[in-house]
Design a protein that fits this description.
Helix content is 51%, strand content 0%. By secondary structure, it is mainly alpha-helical. It starts with a helix and ends with a helix.
Length: 82
C-alpha cells in the first residue's frame, strides 16, 4: 500500500488500513448541508402591497385603466353584435 493511500485511510477512518485489513464504513463527521441560503448573509424583507402600489407611476394607472376600458368596450360591442 502506498503512503498516500495509507494517509487517505487515516483521514477517512481514523486508522491506517493495511492491504489485507478490513475497514468498516464510517459516516461523515462533518455536516453536509448548510441551513442558511447560499450567498445570502441577511435576507431582505419582502415589500408589502402598499409599497408596491406606491412604486407604480400615476401615468401607468391612467393608461392601464384606459386599456382595460377599451377592451371591455370591444368585448361588449362584440357580444351585442351577436
Amino acid at each position: 500500500m502506498t503512503p498516500s493511500r495509507r494517509m487517505e485511510g487515516v483521514r477517512a477512518y481514523d486508522r491506517a488500513a493495511d492491504a489485507f485489513g478490513v475497514v468498516a464504513w464510517k459516516a461523515p463527521s462533518s455536516q453536509r448541508f448548510e441551513s442558511r441560503p447560499a450567498n445570502d448573509a441577511a435576507p431582505a424583507p419582502e415589500p408589502t402591497f402598499t409599497e408596491m402600489a406606491r412604486a407604480i407611476p400615476g401615468w401607468a394607472v391612467v393608461v392601464g385603466g384606459g386599456v382595460v376600458a377599451a377592451l371591455m368596450g370591444v368585448l361588449l360591442g362584440g357580444a351585442l353584435q351577436i
